[in-house]
Amino acid sequence: MSDRVHIYEVSPRDGLQNEPEVVSTDDKLALIGGLVAAGFTDIEVTSFVRPSWIPQLSDAAELIARLPRHDHVRYWALVPNMRGLERALDGELGHVATFMSASETHNRKNVNRTRLESLAGLREVIATAKEEDLVVRSYVSTAFGCPYEGRVPIDDVVTVTRALYEAGADHIALGDTTGMGDPVLVQQVVKAVAAAGVPLDHIALHMHDTQGTALANVLSGYLAGVRTFDGSIAGVGGCPYAPGASGNAATEDLVHMFQAMGVETGVDLDGAAATGAVLADVLGRDLPGRFHKYWLGARIRNAATRTA
Ligand code: MG
Question: Is residue 239 annotated as a catalytic residue, yes or no?
């Protein structure tokens, strides 16, 4: 398997939906433009949930209509159900993402359905999406721990992952929803999923740094053979003061680590960091990414040196 890794950027959707501020469509387009310029080719831009649920993403239709289209860039939207899929089709978006949880309680609390009900609904969504020639990514939340149930049996993660893969999902993103995973568990889950017949090049890891283990878990996944990792620029969506904050792994931290290891990401680290800096200005507060903070500090020191 190639040493090259692929970073899937979630900041416009998973980042901004977990921020208290509502960012304007113009500022989102500037963020997405910065990401494209920095070399990101997979960007999750919004979600077609009911606008009243997530006001931060209520401009989904307008945003999609105004996206700068490039042949090499894949824009993704989260679709909770058939209605969401129809809205993605209306916007001529070629890439959609579904979601459900590996644990029963989290799934019930999140979407008010049992896992079996979710799977039945998603089979229909995925089948329709494939008929329309869309590419489908399916998130499996709580794959490395559940805030309600604690440890989630690996068999449950495997069962849900395999069911989604067999339903036609092109990619499965295993999500560490509240950052409960550890590097040993990551290896166990990845190996179990692969042993159950889901090829590793169809697996992505969506790690959260809620408890400080995101990079360690990403590295562990890489060593187990995974090559696609989700990141959110500057760690946006990781507000430590907001209840329910996800603590998204910071993209620049992933890119920097892989670059230092000699692993190609296709992303320009400086361009990514500059995009994160602009977003911090838009939000008007500090963002949690470690490389983001380092880069800002270096920029201030360089400016001081020049003016000294
Ligand atoms: Mg997340």
Answer: yes
